[in-house]
Known about the structure:
Helices cover 34% and strands 20% of the residues.
Amino acid sequence: MTDANAPSPDPTTRWGIVATVKADCDAILDFAAHHLALGAHRIHLFLDEDNPEARAALATRPRVQVTVCDDAHWARWDGRPEKHQARQTKNATFAYRRRPGVDWLAHIDVDEFLWPDRPIGEQLAALPDDTDVVRVYPVEALAPVDDSAHPGLWFKSYARQQAMRRRQTAEIYPEFGPHLNGGFLSHVAGKVFIRTRIPKVNFRIHNGFVRGEQLSAETSLAETKLCHLHARDFDHFLQAYRYRLARGSYRADLKPAPTPDGAGLNLNALFSLLETEGGEAALRRFYAEVCEASPALRTRLADHDQLHRIDLDLAAKRARFFPQTASTVAK
């Protein structure tokens, strides 16, 4: 029986994303093209470092609004914050407050790609009118291993319930699982869409706040995943490793994975210990168990219903929306 109080899906519900990006042209255009293909009504891109090639291509798409984060931009915020997380949140807040042109706005990163089972606008339109924040949970990409015959990538997920997550993580990743939150190198918190009708919202990385109070995000967009390409291969992992260890997602001030006794290591401590004891070879051993789509890992993930095959098909989307750059596509 249909609930008489349930809202009817509204195909006119408009949604958009905001991101602060520092990446090469291909990565920026992949990100924009993917979300244009999904039907994003607005894509607000803040270039943390100017990229004239990407800017020229993006200018051909009126739904994409580009802001170069130069001195003039930061002057309105009393200067450029040193930490990139602070720059991200200030830009997201600015986009939200300056007539974002959508009913819902999500704050995500350039290596994150929304993946819905049905149109995002339909999902958002079906939410109760008193729901102002909705969370999208991540899946994390695994590095391909002798898998070129199959389109797409393997992704891993994790159990929402904490006790089940600890048990499954230890079984899936026998050597390093006790130190990992769901087997992820990056966040498990996900990202949020926020209705744009709320005054004085401050975006953070994973939440929204109003006057210092966190907005409730108990509802999830269950039919949408957030595909996170955090460490596509070992070379990419190493390239970003030092920065992430000092200032990013492996930094020392982050909490370890929750454990009953609170005795776990956070990633900063774990990686530092591995590197001290075994150098790059130890980091490679970690990466092989946790991040590579080996047959053994895929089997363990599948046994716990935490394995997903997703073909983002970024090259085709970029060729569709930015044909002037098609000759540069090498993916």
